[in-house]
Amino acid sequence: MEHLGGSVQLIRANPLQKLGKKLGLGLRGKKDRGEIKALDPVQLARFLAAVLMTAPELFPIFAVMAWADTRLGKALGLRWEAVNLEGGKLRVDRQFGGTTKTVTTREVDMADPLRDVLADLLSYCREEAFTQGETPSPWVLFPEFGENPDRKAEARVVKRVRNAMARCLKAADLPLHFTPHSLRHSFGSQLIAAGVSPAYVMQQMGHSSIQMAVDVYGSWLPVKVEDAVNRLAAASSPWSGDRMATEGGSGPSEGPSGQGSGEGQLLAGTGTERKAVSPNPAPYPRSPCTCTLHCPWGGGC
Predict the structure, then answer these.
(1) For residue 174, which of 49, 27, 33, 57 has the smallest C-alpha distance?
(2) Which of 33, 144, 173, 278 has the most CB atoms around its CB within 10 Å?
(3) What is the pLDDT of residues 173-184, one digit of tens each?
(4) What's 219's DSSP letter?
(5) Residue 77, φ and ψ in degrees, nearest 5
């Protein structure tokens, strides 16, 4: 209540309402920050296997959300005209959210397993429509939607998907805090963890900046790129056999251990006249060798 000129007036809306949520305060915020919202590859495989066993009729929608980074509302809005099976692309251009509405259009890559799932689904839908003497529904995942689905129809489907996910998580013995949106988090996190370019992840997920891909999706799963440092070293190693041959060396060299005809030689010189030299050319001073057991120069340093 406030006093204005001696009168008393009631403030009908709390000016601080939802301020705690916006600032990340309160118990809910603390709980959310302690939960990993992305499934790792093993968890995702267990979840999808549970879907096949528990709710196989809903496998296509979970596959779309998990393998094509599509939010639940946008998955519901997916129409066959936006599916390019031959080109392996999905066009995301509408979503459900109370009403069907268009959104900023983006095209995403479609994984091969998802393309197979949708190709089988399309064949099934066409066969069912032909059997019943009807025109195939334009909706990919829920053909029962009419031309203009209302909010009740959407709410029924959303509830059905959420309930099915809870059952499948329980069947797979996975944490129950995961939601359909966690599949989007899983998509981004698994790509980042696999060493995929953040620019590609940003493009696929429809973000406006790379920072979201790195800061959020790079924080839930450990990043591990198999053999990354070896690939980097192989590309720039002066002991590369291919490099020796290309640069006019006397023969291939297999590295600093001296195994091979190059005897661990480096390349010296500039331009086209390159020659192989010892990795420890005299008179470069070195201390007496004390690492004969694992000496990188064969005990000769």
Answers:
(1) 49
(2) 278
(3) 999 999 999 998
(4) S
(5) -85, 5
